[in-house]
Amino acid sequence: MKSQEKKDALGKIRELVDRFKQNIDQYKKSTYDEANTRVDFIDPFFESLGWDVANRNGYAEQYREVVREDKIVIVGKQKAPDYSFRIGGIRKFFVEAKKPSIDIKRAMSPAYQLRRYAYTAKLPLSILTDFEEFSVYDTRIKPHPNDNPSVARIFYCKYTDYAKNFDFIYDTFSKDAILKGSFDRYVESKKNKKGTSEVDKEFLKLIDKWREKLARNIALRNSNLSLYELNYAVQKIIDRIIFLRIAEDRQIEDYGKLQVLQNGTNVYGRLMEIFRHADERYDSGLFNFESDNITPEITVDDNIIKEIIKSVYYPESPYEFSVLDVEILGNIYEQFLGKTIRLTAHHRVKIDDKPEVKKAGGVYYTPKYIVDYIVKNTVGEAIKGKTPKQIEKIKILDPACGSGSFLLGAYQYLLNYHLYWYSKQENLEKSLQRGKIIQTSSGSYQITVAEKQRILINNIFGVDIDSQAVEVSKLSLLLKLLEGETEESTGELFRYTQMKLLPDLSNNIKCGNSLIGTDYFSNEIPGLIDEQELRQINPFDWEKEFPDIFENGGFDVVIGNPPYVKEYTNRQPFEYIRKTRLAKYYEGKMDLWYIFACKSIDLLKRKGYHSFIATNNWTTSAGASKLREKILRETRIMKFVDFADFKVFENASIQTMIYILRKEKIAKSYKVKYTKILNKKVPVTNLIDRLNYEVSRQKQLSSSEYEWFNALINPKELENRTITFVKDRIEKVLKKIKTNANYKLNEKKVSTGIDVHQDFVIDKHLLKLKDRSIKKGDGIFVLTTEEIKKIKLTADEKKIIKPYYTTEQLHRFWGDKNNNLWVIYSDINVRKNINNYPHIKAHLDKFSDIITSDFKPYGLHRARQQIFFEGEKIISLRKTIVPYFTYTGFPCYVSQTYFVLKPDNINLKYLIAILNSKLIHFWLYYKGKKQGDQLQIDKKPLLDLPLIKPDLSNPEEKKMHDDLVAMVEQMLDLQRKYHSARLEQDKKLYKTQIDVLDKKIDSLVYKLYGLTEEEIKVVEGK
Question: Which of 199, 213, 236 is nearest to 317 (CA)?
């Protein structure tokens, strides 16, 4: 059975197909261009699949569902895909549009173009279409310029076959399909297909090849270089080339600046001139030749540089750097840094795994969804409700930053927060005047380069023992700073200030050993410290390196993915630690990350947040007792996510978890939001979306995938030296309620209200409609009683005018029959028969100047069966602090703010007594869905309610049933009197009676469910 939404989508696509077929000769002409194709067919095609193509919801730029790019042609190649479809700002697939005169099936260039975009962006599927033809490509398959257009194409159809293939198209690419995970399931089903190799793995192979060739050539031509100098030179050259190549594709540098080096001689010398020019422009450590005395002095053969340059340009390169996410580049670099250059006795080059990587079993790059979850629950909490001025003081640290994935996540979160704050209506004018944001030619707002620099310098800090990792982390942050920048936006910076495009991050991202300070050498004889040992230990004094931060108490947020090094695999770092002040945290049989966690808490200021993704056995492991003791004594555990058998890291079988801590001493027991992943087969992309909701949201998920509860933590458990996450007494009561229930609502007997746009619900007049344009799908018109009287409706018109109700009339238990709004509502398509309704047509025509041509005001959008709104029913408010169910026995049409319950096998007055009880409030609060303090009582929470249908043949159950019905009838009368009373004294009298009756109903419901006095206290929060 297809959903109504799906049926509606198919109907709209059939209309598009009919229109295309009728005028196909005109559309196939070369004069009918791509822009018209997009507006006439491709935009409405994807709108029918539920996508907000035109951003009618008014989402901020970073969260809009569909990003439509204008074509920019530089050196004969286009710079961006036409459409990027996103959920929560995360790309899901690209669509590349062409005009119908292009032969999609046979043309090579369009297919290669789309595949380059999507492959580089690491998207699994993307679409090439001119509406006449529709091709889907598996974009995990590496593209080559000579590929036949059929290569990697996994689906093709013409417009005449859209209806036949509609299930596949809708179930894969509609917004609803993405949200429900069917897109991800389809992708998973095609995984490991022959030829698939994701961009990070292929690009890693490429830069690995660069490293090897550069290292061999530089070592051969520059025999005076030490091993450290050789590693430095190779890394710098690669970083600079990648940075400039990305800057070209993002229009910050002229396209082809590096490409010209393929012609002529003295290639490395000319490359250095480009680097020096970049130093003048960017003034960044990346191109700092005051501190770099190595790369300007070395010799590199022409053919080596030419080969590298050739491999990053079209058509040789399959990579489109304008869509290469910095996070993907970070993943590539994390693996790249796992190896190092080694020199043999004869100054020959060998590339080996770093010793620490070999002992750890590989490099584990943190998936973005883990970074996002940790950042949201730490940085998000630290800056919540703060102004940009207040956020200046927030200091965020990753003490083992690697390539910078957590710093990138934190920086992006800060940028999003600032853009939202600056572009709010009350802040917008000042923000523009003060140069915090600019409005681009497309009309959107973005943070200025200067402000992005300020945020980066003020808020983001990192430390890593690996100097190469530090440089990559800086590079990643600089690329993130430039993300979204164009010649237009960067031009603003250079026009008005002397500020350079990139800041110097040397005071933010530092190289050193986060665990070992110079106190390690306190017992050494001066002048006899071994240079090799010093390089290996690389001591770091926090107070000296970040004096201002520690004068103010420390960092506000410490996050990351610390190194996992077990003592039995590598004793050396533990031997170092035992000679420092951190020895107090050592206890043998440890993992190095335990020390990192203890140190991180020490680095935090009071009320600061700390979170790691790490192994999950620390709660009971003997080697982690000092960590547990520190956590229980000095912090509050806010959240705990246990991944159990779920494989977070692609190449590692370790079990992991996330904890969120706040530095504050807690003396008494407290609750922790605990979530455990039970099903390791859950697609990672589904996990991303789910983890980014609160635990209360997760309670609607399948119990075969998640276990969740509010765990009780007792700081006095120190004597047990373990932390056990146990369910508290609430879970026992919830379980009893569910066990004693015997009835659930039937899905077919529950419906949403009708789709009425809020701008059309107007109490006095429709004049405010002139404030904005009405678009297709916005809803249907609502008229006031006064307007209806003026219109003088015919008998036929009166049949399609229905009484419309809002929270003004619908109260808890009771609904006021007297309405002042009416809705044009009919199951038939009024628009086709509009001449039968002349007065309504004349009234609506008054607003024709503000109604867009594609809006159909006379047709009902997503019609509901009228039977739901007639006769006896219960109306449920979707968002409310307490359950808000209304009984009505009269015709009552409501918006999608409500659900309508119309079961026919239970007394509705009996049912509403249970629904409005404290017991059901208790259930929804813990098992339902929440947004902040509000319950979000959507369809699934309603269908999951554990209800009791009494056996009326049982005298005791019949009496409880009849008593509840009688109480509800009394409640309806009291509510009517209360809401009709004009004297405050009368209102107070009726309110007292209502409260007494509420308690009686609750008491009887508790008895119905068999709750004890102690269990009732749990429900009532006593």
Answer: 199
Helix (H) and strand (E) counts for the chain?
Answer: 39, 32
| pLDDT of amino acid 852 | 43
Residue 964 has pLDDT above 90, yes or no: yes
Tokens of 662: 């706040």
Cβ distance 95 to 85 under 8 Å? yes
- Over its C-alpha atoms, the chain yields an Rg (Å, rounded) of 33
pLDDT digits (tens, 9 = 90+) for 636-688: 999 998 887 777 876 666 788 999 999 998 878 888 888 877 755 544 445 54
User: Is-above-0.70 flag for pTM?
Assistant: no
Q: Which CATH number, 3.40.1440, 3.40.50, 3.90.220, 2.40.300, labels domain 747-948?
A: 3.90.220
C-alpha–C-alpha distance, residues 536 and 936, integer Å: 55
Query: Which pair of tokens denotes residue 801?
Result: 């005018």
DSSP state letters, 253-294? S-TTTTGGGGSSS-HHHHHHHHHHHHHHHH--GGG-TTT--S
Dist. CA 93–CA 140, nearest whole Å: 12
Write the pLDDT tens digit of every residue in 920-962: 999 888 777 665 467 888 888 899 899 999 999 999 999 999 9
**Could you tell me which of 147, 139, 117, 118 has the C-alpha nearest to residue 196?**
139
Residues 6+ apart with CB under 8 A from 235: 468, 471, 472
Angle at 927 between CA 923 and CA 929, to 5 degrees: 110
Burial class (CB in 10 A: 0-12, 13-18, 19+), 181: middle
Region class of 364: left (phi > 0), else alpha (psi between -120 and 50), else beta = beta
* pLDDT tens readout for residues 589-605: 788 899 999 999 999 99
Dist CA 1022 CA 1020 (whole Å): 6
Which CA distances in Å does 1012 have to 610, 963, 1018?
A: 41, 20, 10
Q: How confident is the model at residue 772 (pLDDT cuts 50, 70, 90)?
A: very low
- Give the C-alpha separation, 138 to 390, whole Å: 46
Task: Count Cβ neighbours within 10 Å for each residue of 522-556 and write b for 16 or more, e otherwise.
Answer: eeeeeeeeeeeeeeebbbbebeeebeebbeeebbb
What values do phi and psi take at 675, rounded to 5?
-135, 135
Residue 774: helix, strand or coil by DSSP? strand
Residues 6+ apart with CB under 8 A from 162: 13, 14, 17, 134, 169
- 3 state DSSP class of 91: strand
CA 237 – CA 573 distance, rounded (Å): 32
Instruction: Look at residues 964, 961, 960 and name the one whose alpha carbon lies nearest to residue 1001.
Output: 964
The answer to whether 565 touches 356, Cβ cutoff 8 Å, is yes
CATH number of 4-189: 3.90.1570
Tokens (6 digits) for 901: 């319950």
Q: How far apart are CA 478 and CA 805, in angstroms?
A: 54
CB contact set of 426 (below 8 Å; sequence gap of 6+): none
DSSP class of 363: -
| Contact assessment for residue 17 and residue 165, using Cβ atoms and an 8 Å cutoff | no
Give the Cα separation of 834 and 823 in Å (integer).
16
Q: Chain centroid to CA 383: how far?
A: 18
| Backbone dihedral angles phi then psi of residue 95, each to the nearest 5 degrees | -130, 125
791 torsion bin: left (phi>0), alpha (psi -120 to 50), beta (else): alpha
Q: Which residue do the tokens 């019949």 mark?
A: 958
Distance CA 887, CA 950 (A): 20
Q: Is the Cβ–Cβ distance between 883 and 921 less than 8 Å?
A: yes
